[in-house]
Each structure stands twice: as C-alpha cells, then as structure tokens.
Design goal:
Layout lengths: L1 E3 L1 H8 L3 H8 L9 E4 H10 L3 H6 L4 E4 L3 H12 L4 H11 L6 E4 L12 E3 L4
Helix pairs in contact: 1-2, 1-3, 3-6, 5-6
C-alpha cells in the first residue's frame, strides 16, 4: 500500500512523474489506490494553497479521514516528537488501516517510527 505524506503531495502538485502516474490512474479497488492522510493534505495545502482542490480531483487517490482513533494517535506521536505533518502518515502506515510504505521526500522524518519510508527524491 502506498501512502503519500505532505512532501509527496507537494511533489505531486509540482509535477513529480511517478506520483503523477499513480494519481491519475483510476483503480476500481480503493484498497489498491494511493492513500493521502487528511492531515498530510492540510499540511501540504498550508505550504502551497490550492493543493486540496487539485489533489481532490485526481481519480487514483483515496483520502484517509482524521477520525478519533487517528487524532488520538497523532496527538500521542506528536507528543513523542514526531512532526505533526508526518504523524497521520505514521498512524496510517502502522495502524493496520492501510499498512504500507510512506512515499516521501523527507525519509529522515520517519526514523524511529517503524515506518517503511520510500524516498521519492527531491520534487
């Protein structure tokens, strides 16, 4: 399973070829789509206004809600030192919701979290 963190969302919006290919291919099974945690989407949109509308129109992405369980886990991870912009991706990757790797331009942000971070390179 692929999870896009805020840096990957920004790279996607800036034309990253691999991510663009993933995001535009509509897959019938939502489990096989790339996943974007909602808090990562917010973090990206704070850096680059308009991201939410752009990314929301792409058929190959599934968006993960920040429900109570996710909010509690994000709070706990952030209190433990995980950057808030990455915390929802960490939760998604380790909670069993969509277990998988996090695609990111900042793999060091996931050191010590138990998350398999895949470096997408600089956007």
């Amino acid at each position: 399973m692929m999870i896009l963190d805020h840096t990957a969302v920004l790279a996607l919006c800036r034309g990253h070829r691999l991510l663009s290919g993933i995001a535009v291919v509509e897959v019938a099974d939502p489990v096989r789509r790339a996943h974007v945690p909602s808090l990562c989407l917010v973090a990206a949109s704070l850096e680059l206004p308009g991201v939410t509308a752009h990314v929301g129109a792409l058929p190959g992405l599934e968006f993960l809600p920040l429900d109570f369980a996710a909010a509690a886990a994000v709070e706990s991870a952030t209190a433990a030192g995980v950057d808030w912009r990455s915390a929802h991706a960490v939760f998604a990757a380790v909670s069993g919701v969509v277990e998988g790797q996090v695609l990111t331009a900042a793999p060091d942000a996931y050191d010590g979290t138990g998350v398999w971070a895949v470096d997408i390179g600089k956007p």
